[in-house]
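Open question from group meeting: does this chain pack into something compact, or does most of it stay loose? Before anyone orders reagents, we agreed to write out a predicted structure and look at it together. Recording both the input and the output here so the notebook holds the full record.
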Amino acid sequence: MTAAEFLPTVQALVHAYQAFEACSGAHIRTLGLTPPQFDIVATLGNTPGMTATELGEKTLITKGTLTGVVDRLAARGWVERVAHGSDRRCQIIRLTPAGEALFAEVFPAHLAYMARCFARTGAAQHRRWQGVLRELAAVFPKESA
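C-alpha cells returned:
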C-alpha cells in the first residue's frame, strides 16, 4: 500500500472530524463551556464519578489537559474530587449537585442541536456510517507502537 492510496482516506477522515468539531464546538461555547469542559460534564453525567484515569480513557482529553480542565470545573462548583472508597492513592471525580443541574441543561440541548445537524439523514445511512467507521477503526493497532 502506498501513501498515495491511503492518504485521501486520512484526509477525508481529518476533514470530517474537523467539520464535526467546528460545528459541535461552536454550539458548546454558546452553552458557556469549552469543548473539553463539556466532554467531562457529559462523561460524568449519570455516573457516580470516576478516577482521572477512567475519565481520561473515556474522553478525548489528554492527561496533561485533564487536570487543568477539572480544576476549572471544580472552581466553578460543577465537579468535586472525593476520596476513593478502596484506594487511598486515588480520588473520584464526580459532578456536584450544581454539575448535575448543568448536565441536565446542556446535554439535552447539545443532543437536540446535533439532531438538527443530522435531520436530513436516515437510520440506514447512520448504520452504514457506523459500520464503515468501526471497520476503519479496526485497521489501527489497539496500542501505539
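Observations to bring back to the group:
The first helix runs from residue 3 to 30.
The CA atoms of residues 11 and 17 lie 10 Å apart.
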